[in-house]
Specification:
Layout: E1 2-5, E2 12-15, E3 19-21, E4 24-26, H1 32-38, E5 46-53, E6 57-63, E7 71-77, E8 79-86, E9 97-103, E10 109-112, E11 116-122, E12 126-133, E13 142-144, H2 167-170
Length: 189
């Protein structure tokens, strides 16, 4: 696998080595050993999957301390625009984001360490999205930032009139009003 750094410390794009022939393709989607050597040591404890239609936007989600999560995400069907936002207090890139298209064709994955909010928008008719987490979901620590917060400057590549958001995601506060308890000095994993 190739690891590509982004403008946000710890957030990386992972491109697998794909073997193609007349039968189709094969690739190793995750190797604990290789991930620990090339990205960081981590123990994933939960896998999640969602299916969504065009225009669905989910996020920007995170869990508060001490239940923060790192995520390794990928799109196995369709296309999503995946976004990570730095919410680490004291970070030189606080409030900045990285946006990456993850598709069933490019097989890319995005690793989002603790201290970042995460969300995605579905750009294809349908998308199946999978992610690994290094901490269990804790409803009491569930938090988020408004996806359409203009201060973030995210181009979701979907007209606002066509965006489909849950009631929960519509109620998230703007970044300036969000409860953020992750500090630049806290561990990313």
């Amino acid at each position: 696998m190739e690891v590509i750094k982004t403008a946000l410390e710890g957030v990386v794009i992972i491109e697998p080595r794909i073997f193609k022939d007349a039968r189709g393709y094969f690739f190793e989607s995750f190797s604990q050993k290789e991930f620990s050597e090339k990205v960081m040591p981590i123990d994933f404890v939960q896998d999640n999957e969602s299916m969504s239609s065009y225009g669905v936007m989910r996020g920007l989600h995170y869990q508060r301390m001490p239940y923060t999560q790192s995520k390794l995400v990928r799109c196995v069907k369709g296309t999503v625009l995946d976004v990570a936002v730095d919410i680490r207090k004291g970070s030189p890139t606080f409030g900045q984001h990285v946006a990456v298209e993850l598709t069933e064709e490019n097989h890319r994955q995005l690793f989002i360490p603790r201290g970042f909010a995460h969300g995605f928008a579905v750009l294809s008719d349908v998308a199946v999205f999978q992610y690994k987490c290094d901490n269990f979901y804790a409803p009491q620590a569930d938090a988020g930032i408004q996806l359409l917060d203009e201060a973030l400057g995210i181009d979701w590549k979907i007209p606002t009139a066509e965006a489909i958001l849950s009631e929960k995601d519509l109620k998230h506060p703007l970044l300036k009003d969000a409860v953020l308890d992750f500090d630049i000095n806290d561990k990313l994993y």
